[in-house]
TrEMBL record, chains A, B:
It comes from Rhizobium lusitanum. GO terms for biological process: fructose 6-phosphate metabolic process; protein N-linked glycosylation; UDP-N-acetylglucosamine metabolic process. PANTHER family: FRUCTOSELYSINE 6-PHOSPHATE DEGLYCASE, GLUCOSAMINE--FRUCTOSE-6-PHOSPHATE AMINOTRANSFERASE, ISOMERIZING. This is SIS domain-containing protein. It holds the Pfam family SIS. Gene3D superfamilies: 1.10.10.2240, 3.40.50.12570, Glucose-6-phosphate isomerase like protein, domain 1. Residues 12-154 form the SIS domain. Keywords: Aminotransferase, Transferase. One of its GO terms (molecular function) is carbohydrate derivative binding.
Length: 333, 333
């Protein structure tokens, strides 16, 4: 049972405790950026002291918001710690007098070097060794933010977060078992799809975004977009026909009714066999605090969906998820 | 020559001048939401007093951020003023003690009724009568925000904005002439495309978003996504091959190099005949203030691209841009 924040998180928070933090910038690129969306959702819901923004690394540097000053905290994330745009963002933020915390797998990486404080996390795919999801990018980000909130707003959500994180990996393991047959069916159904959309809102939006751009587009070369579950009704839904393929995430946060409405529409005007809907109500979330279910469900969905990606890959012409045309193959773009 | 803010904007700003505003929520759905992105870009660049968020109407109501309080200003937009989610958002915001300004074509609409203050704008497509782009949703939003900035930050960008807006319509008219042949060529080239992406960053992102979801998806039933020009390199670019179709916007704001990089990649690994790139450097922007070019270019791009939509529609099986499967045809979803 996890009862304390990780030491590097505690150290980083202690080091910044004396500084007044007014605004939090959540900065990364691609998959690492996706976790920042639920991070902001968490802050929006709970903080009256802190405002926040989520930006891609290069957008942040060039946009150069006026709020980036000595009262800003900039949290950056890059798996390898080598993402150039994110490293540049850390350097830029420090130059502006802001505090910086780097989240990375590698505490010796360029991003770690560029930031004031480093917080390590784990990812199973780099090592092949299973990890505890509590120590994943999502888990660690929530720990940083709950710790920050305790300092800025004197709301202490750290204990329920830690106990919830302690029960996360078993929930994920059960989800894998639960979804196995469903994923087999939908991998067959989706294997020739030229386009697959993802739909979500609130804390789930980041997972939908990441699955669309990093899994469908990057790894499987399938056209995709993460559609916000309500924005769906203001344009995107016109592409829906009986053949349109969707992955719909239905979570447990306050925006759930938006996601439910999206699913209902898809079931009615699309075809059930073309809508892979994951509903968190079906999950066994034993031990996860009621107030944290909404925040942790996207981790479960995203982790579970990896298995779907592998099953889909195995049935498509492009067999290896690891194959790329450009990323890390061509260096001068 | 425009020398004063519209009377309804001046009235709304005067009415809120006595209140302390700390945070601005920019709330709408679909195409109306798209204009809020450059609005936030403008605030980010110029305001040290105000923070801001851009949210879909229903996301805003359900997320219910803690910052939505008596020091929040909520600017909402809906063309007809009947968008249910946006009307609900106005009601919710007032209940929370926030100030509300509704932007709409119809000052007697439900949204206008639900908000504290109403600001009218114009759109040519509803009446068929050409308008001055200064009075469009974008123009009016910038006027509200520049006026607000004058009150909150004592930076007066109203005079250069107004003189720039006065020169906007001639710049748009010239762009239409300039792009006519280009759009003919690309309408031929894109007419059978199952997927067309849009790419942009900074102030242009909203125009790319709107063109993707409201024009390609809603009106033309073409699969699409607005890809952020740097996020493009963190996943989405792997779908690029010689046949992939893109509309790339290259503007004049601080993020320009992100958009240039995207275009270079697409030219190199895609095919020039499949990349419709609009570069604002080619536009005649006579009379538009240097500091406002970046903000006004997306209006020019978006207005110009309407002609491309019509040309594309004329060559596709689905002939009428007005045809819908669901929107305003089915009422109970």
């Amino acid at each position: 049972m996890k009862t304390e924040l990780n030491a590097d998180i505690t150290n980083a928070l202690q080091a910044i405790a004396s500084r007044e933090v007014r605004h939090v910038f959540l900065i990364a690129c691609g998959g690492s950026l996706s976790i920042m969306h639920p991070g902001k959702y968490f802050l929006d819901r709970h903080s009256s002291a802190l405002t926040s923004d989520v930006y891609n690394g290069d957008e942040f540097v060039t946009r150069d918001p006026r709020k980036l000053d000595g009262k800003a905290l900039v949290i950056l994330c890059s798996q390898t710690g080598t993402t150039k745009e994110t490293v540049r963002a850390a350097t830029h933020a420090r130059k502006k007098g802001a505090l910086t915390i780097a989240m990375t797998l590698d505490p010796q990486s360029p991003l770690a070097e560029a930031a004031d404080h480093v917080v390590a996390y784990q990812a199973s795919y780099t090592t092949g060794i299973p990890i505890d999801a509590a120590e994943s990018n999502y888990g660690v980000l929530y720990m940083i933010l709950a710790g920050l909130l305790r300092q800025s707003d004197t709301i202490d959500l750290v204990p329920p977060l830690l106990s919830s994180l302690s029960h996360l990996q078993p929930a994920i393991d059960k989800a894998h078992v639960q979804y196995a047959a469903l994923f087999d069916t939908y991998a067959d159904q989706f294997k020739d799809a030229p386009v697959i959309y993802t739909v979500a809102s609130g804390a789930n939006y980041g997972a939908a975004y990441s699955f669309a751009i990093c899994v469908f587009m990057e790894m499987l070369w399938i056209n995709s977009q993460a559609i916000h579950a309500n924005e769906f009704f203001h344009g995107p839904f016109e592409v829906v026909d009986r053949n349109a393929k969707f992955v719909a995430l239905i979570g447990l946060d306050e925006t759930r009714r938006l996601e439910e409405r999206g699913r209902e529409f898809l079931y009615r005007f699309g075809a059930r066999e073309n809508v892979l809907a994951l509903d968190a109500k079906d999950l066994d979330l034993t031990g996860i605090d009621e107030g944290f279910k909404g925040y942790l469900v996207p981790l479960i969905f995203f982790d579970a969906l990896w298995k779907f990606a592998y099953k889909l890959a195995a049935k498509r012409e492009k067999i290896m998820l690891e194959d790329r045309r450009y990323m890390k193959k061509i260096s001068d773009y």
